[in-house]
Amino acid sequence: MKKINLDWDKVNGLIPAIVQDHETLEILMLGYMNKEALKLSQSSGFATFFSRTRKKLWTKGETSGNKLAIKKILHDCDKDTLLILAKNNGPTCHLDNNSCFIDPPSSRNFIDDLEQIIDKSFKEANVASYTYQLYKDGVKEIAKKITEEAGEVSISAVTNDGRVINESADLMYHLLVMLRKLNLNYSDVVQELKNRSR
After folding, report:
1. Which phi and psi angles does 56 have, rounded to 5°?
2. How confident is the prediction along the chain (198 residues), in pLDDT tens digits per residue?
3. In this structure, are 192 and 114 located in the same domain?
4. CA nearest 27: which of 89, 87, 101?
5. Parent domain of 87
6. Paired strand residues for 19
7. DSSP-based helix, strand, coil % in the chain, nearest 5
8. What element of type H or E holds 58?
């Protein structure tokens, strides 16, 4: 964050800091920072707050390990509130929830949920699961399926047989399985597309 003159007097030396997931935009928590906490947050790269009850600094995750890695710090127009975009390394809430808020809005989408379902199938190792069988067969076999599904999408588009959506869904599913097998995410692909559009 660029050096700015925050209105510390207006907030009696404690500025509210809203923490938001930098990818999903889910609101994770609200904390308070004094000048020292903000300075430490900026230098360490991890969100540090001032505890109003314990009257001391604390870095989020110092006991749980679920730290908030800061990606960006913004301020509002009145310079009396901060917005911290961060990546959480685990549940933010002490109740083991991702957010301290109940059902916060998020830009999380179905692809994120599907990736979690795929990961779960990998871990459960159910031999009756098609997803697990793909995982077990390895990248080479998954790649063959992607080639096959891409061909079916192309044929469907050329022949206009009304199956483009169905075939595209098959292609997307197999692509997601391969990405997760390689420990990659769909968001990595989206980021690459964003980089190319600049």
Report:
1. -155, 165
2. 556 789 999 999 999 999 999 988 889 999 999 999 999 999 999 999 999 999 999 999 998 899 999 999 999 999 999 999 999 988 999 898 889 998 777 666 788 889 989 999 999 999 999 999 999 999 999 999 999 999 999 999 999 999 999 999 999 999 999 999 999 999 889 889 988 987
3. yes
4. 101
5. 1-107
6. 29, 84
7. 40, 20, 40
8. strand 56-59
| Residues 125, 148 within the same domain | yes
Whether 61 and 84 map to the same domain: the answer is yes
Q: Are residues 127 and 93 in the same domain?
A: no
Residue written as tokens 């980021």? Answer: 191
- Residues 95 and 130 reside in one and the same domain: no
Which amino acid appears at position 47 of this protein? Answer: A
Count Cα atoms within 13 angstroms, Cβ side, for 191.
7
Write the CATH number for 168: 1.10.287.1080
pTM for this entry: 0.59
- The residue type found at 111 is I
Token pair of 86 as six digits:
């961060």
Pairwise CA distance, residues 31 & 47, whole Å: 9
* Among 81, 94, 105, residue whose Cα is nearest residue 33: 81
What's the residue count for the chain? Answer: 198
In total, how many domains does the chain have?
Answer: 2
- DSSP assignment letter at 129: -
Shared domain check, 14 and 101: yes
